[in-house]
Amino acid sequence: MGSEQTEAAWLKGNWPGEDIGCGRKYETMVFLAGDRCKSKRCGCGMPSLRNASELDFAGYMTAGAATKGHMAMCCKWAKRTKKGNL
After folding, report:
1. What is the 3-state secondary structure (H, E, C) of 13-80?
2. How confident is the model at residue 86 (pLDDT cuts 50, 70, 90)?
3. What is d(CA 72, CA 61) in angstroms, rounded to the nearest whole number?
4. Strands 47-49 and 26-30, how do they pair?
5. Strand 47-49 to 33-36 pairing
6. What confidence tens digit (pLDDT) does each residue in 4-44 have?
7. What integer pLDDT is reported at residue 73 of this predicted model?
8. In Å, what is the CA distance from 24 to each residue of 15, 19, 41, 45?
9. 1 band by pLDDT with thresholds 50, 70 and 90
10. Domain boundaries in the chain?
11. Taking a C-beta distance cutoff of 8 angstroms, is the pair 60, 69 a contact?
12. Which of 37, 39, 55, 66 sits at 20 to 30 Å (Cα–Cα) from 47?
């Protein structure tokens, strides 16, 4: 199991990294979030998953496309949740 430092060092010599799937180096997924972690031992505050299956997904080959695609997906799902369409 590597650390972020190990990964950063590897990426310097292997930029832009390996494909994580067919024709993509980056991806954005949407999951239905559950309650936030309240464990004093963990302290992360991250939500649990209500269901491990993603509601939406998109893959990208460049960091720029991933950033734009991620923000577009955030906007898309913010509108859906505001309207109550889950």
Report:
1. HCCCCCCCECCECEEEEECCEEEECCCCCCCCCCEEECCCCCCEEEEECCHHHHHHHHHHHHHHHHHH
2. low
3. 16
4. unpaired
5. antiparallel
6. 888 788 878 877 777 777 778 899 999 988 899 988 888 89
7. 93
8. 14, 5, 36, 30
9. low
10. 17-83
11. yes
12. 66
Beta partners for 59?
Answer: 27
Closest CA to 46 of 63, 34, 54: 34
Estimate to the nearest angstrom the gap between the alpha carbon of 13 and the chain centroid.
24
Q: Per this entry, what is the length of the chain?
A: 86
Q: How many CB atoms lie within 10 A of CB 28?
A: 18
Terminal-residue alpha carbon distance, the chain: 36
Q: Which long-range contacts (CB under 8 A, 24 or more apart) does 14-20 make?
A: 16/62, 16/63, 20/59
